[in-house]
Design a protein that fits this description.
alpha+beta, 2 helices, 83 residues, 35% strand, four-stranded antiparallel sheet
Amino acid sequence: MLYDIRGLKKRYNGRTVLDLPELFFEKGEIYGLLGPNGSGKTTLLSILGFLNTPSAGDLFYKGRRVSFTEKFLLPLRKEVVVV
């Protein structure tokens, strides 16, 4: 399992812009991300790229829980690229 997302939420100014109860991404698979404007696509990608911190929930990368601290994120940011 590449990514395992559980209860992930992102809020801006009290407004919830992303609310994912559960989502999994397997290594080696190709996924498409579709949705209307404002549905949280870019927010999700920035969290998966370790550029943005979720407001709540857990994100696991390669089976390891991600701690959104600079020390933990720097090596991950070198491994994951969002274009």
